[in-house]
Design brief:
This protein has helices at about 5-20, 25-35, 40-45, 50-60, 85-100, 110-120, 125-140; strands at about 140-145, 150-155. It is built from seven helices and two strands. Strands 1-2 form a two-stranded antiparallel ribbon. By secondary structure, it is mainly alpha-helical.
Length: about 160
Amino acid sequence: MSNINKHILNQIGIQLRARREELHYSQKDVANMTGLTVNTISAIEKGGGSTLYNFLLLCRSLHIQPKEFFQEDIDLTPLYNIPPDSKRRIEITQKLDNLVYHSDFFTSPKRVADVIKELDTEKSDSNKFSVYLTGYCKEGELEYIKEGNIKKYIKKKNGG
């Protein structure tokens, strides 16, 4: 387990133990209420990792809201960076969302090639864009017109 969350887990364990002792419960009492083993409860109280499911079981048995454990902001910097190909996919999807939802680009029929040109992306992405645009059609945001082998996408008319 990475050390990045170790301090947070230790703090949660300390708070769980303090609450258990405040209620005069033994670890066995909590085990009986949760179905967890005494060893699991002991490990959690010592800052050991656990599942969210077990954490919620403990909160229920100790009558403590989970939000009580997170009064202070946590540094939310991810441990690792998103790979470049994923970053690119996210950026393209965001740009496409803007075209579909926040522009008048699709008020007239557009081919995949038009979308690629508008977004200034690579022609090799045309299959991906066909899939993306089909998704917007399934959502009911766009519809397509077929002209021979070519699909043209247009903003779906509401309430027709």
